[in-house]
Amino acid sequence: MNVLLTGFEPFDKEALNPSWEAVRALEGWRCDGALVHARRIPCVFGVALRELDAAIDALQPRLVIGIGQAGGRSEITPERVAINVDDGRICDNAGCQPIDVPVVAGAPAAYFSTLPIKAMVRDLRAGGIPAAVSNSAGTFVCNHFFFGLMHRIATRPVAAGQRGGFIHIPYLPEQAARFPGAPSMALDTVIAALRIAVATALAVREDVRETGGQLS
C-alpha cells in the first residue's frame, strides 16, 4: 500500500516551508506495511492540482495527506472541511491572485475530510504534541489543494476506500523569530506528529465521537 504525503514550496518571501521540510523526512518510511512517498507541491493555483493528479496517477495511493504551513497557529491542526472557493489574500508564487472563484466549477460547495481527524488529535495529544481540529483551511493554495484532492477522491478514486485530507502545521522556530510573539514548533516534533497522524489514519477506519468544535 502506498501513502502519499505532500508539502509545499516556500511562499510569501519565506526561505523555507515547514510542510516540505517535515514531509521529505518521511520519504521511504514504512508504517504498518504501507510505504510513504513524499512530493513537493508548487504554491500555485491550478499547478498544485496538476501535480497532485500526476502523483496520484503514478503512485495509486490508498491514503493521501496534504500538509501546509499555517503561520500563527500553535498546534498541529487536521482540517475538517475544504470549501470550493479561491480567494487569495496574497498572490501565489506565479503572481496569480484569484478572488471569489470556484476551485472546481460545478462541484459541491464543500467536502469533508475522510481522515479520522478526531482520533488523530487524540493520539497526538496522547503523544505529548499540541493538536486540535481546525474548521477552516483558509482560501489560499492549501484549501485549493485540499478541495481538489477531495473532489478527485469523490469522483475518480484509485480504489474503493481511498481516503484523504489535509493538516496544517505551525511555523518552525527560525521562521517565528522574524515575527515576535508568533508560536512555532520544532521540526523534530512536527515529523513525530506526522508519523502519529499517518499511523492513526491507517489504523482507524471510523473516527471517534468526541468534541472538536469551536465557538468561533
From TrEMBL:
Top enzyme category: hydrolase
PROSITE patterns referenced in this protein's UniProt entry, alphabetically: PYRASE_CYS, PYRASE_GLU
A GO MF label: pyroglutamyl-peptidase activity
Protein name: Pyrrolidone-carboxylate peptidase
Catalytic activity annotation: Release of an N-terminal pyroglutamyl group from a polypeptide, the second amino acid generally not being Pro
PANTHER family referenced in this protein's UniProt entry, alphabetically: PROTEASE FAMILY C15 PYROGLUTAMYL-PEPTIDASE I-RELATED, PYROGLUTAMYL-PEPTIDASE I
Keywords from the UniProt entry: Cytoplasm, Hydrolase, Protease, Thiol protease
Active site: 79, 142, 168
Annotated EC: 3.4.19.3
Database matches in InterPro entries: Peptidase_C15, Peptidase_C15-like, Peptidase_C15-like_sf, PGP-I_bact-type, PGPEP1_Cys_AS, PGPEP1_Glu_AS
Localization of this protein: Cytoplasm
Role this protein plays: Removes 5-oxoproline from various penultimate amino acid residues except L-proline.
Family: Belongs to the peptidase C15 family.
Top-level taxon of the source organism: Bacteria
Keyword Protease: yes
Subunit and partners: Homotetramer.
Keyword ATP-binding included in the entry's annotation: no
A Pfam family the protein falls into: Peptidase_C15
